[in-house]
Amino acid sequence: MKTIDCRNMACPQPVVTVKRALEESPGESLTVLVDGGAPRENVSRFAANRGLMVAEAPVEGGYSLVLSGNGIFPEVGKTNAPVGEGKSIMLVGSDRLGDGPEELGRLLMKNFMITLLDVTELPDRIFFINTGVLLTTAGSEIVEVLEKLENQGCEVFSCGVCLDFFHCKDKLVAGSVTNMFTIAESMLKARSVIRL
């Protein structure tokens, strides 16, 4: 069984490294050494989403993840879903909407998110990046709205690098942490992408 060491790698490098290793040896089990927190979560989620079993154990300096099973690795740029049937993605890159005064922008973003609760078709996933991640953390005026959106089937994700940059990963209260690889892959496979 091959072992790769992804400790001390910046996002999204652990996921990219694991993806390449799995593609080089399809069907073979792989042991991955990762740091705790976002790298561990991101690699585990990546593997599970591709039909692999993940067994983890703490090791010195992080975690050991054993990935096993056949898995599903579609060709890069390809999707099994017919055109028009992929997920719809919303990318939120700021904690405010528009380019006007900050106070107005924050009010517009809050009102926009509240309005989503009453539209007929929600996005499948909302990704928060840059200052947008501040909307998913403690103290945000829209945390309850995001929780209601999740209860209605909308997945909510915040960029781990962005949360780290603003020193607020421990304050995340809505949705879960993700990485740039997952964001990019989801956008490229999406039926539609809406950027705020």
Automatic annotation (TrEMBL):
Family annotation (Gene3D superfamilies): TusA-like domain
Residue ranges constituting the UPF0033 domain according to the UniProt record: 2-67
Taxonomic superkingdom: Bacteria
InterPro entries, alphabetized: DsrEFH-like, Se_metab_YedF, Sulphur_relay_DsrE/F-like, TusA-like, TusA-like_sf
Pfam families, alphabetized: DsrE, TusA
NCBIfam families according to UniProt: selenium_YedF (TIGR03527)
Family of this protein: Belongs to the sulfur carrier protein TusA family.
Name under which the protein is recorded: Selenium metabolism protein YedF, putative
Organism of this sequence: Geotalea daltonii (strain DSM 22248 / JCM 15807 / FRC-32) (Geobacter daltonii)
Encoding gene, per UniProt annotation: yedF
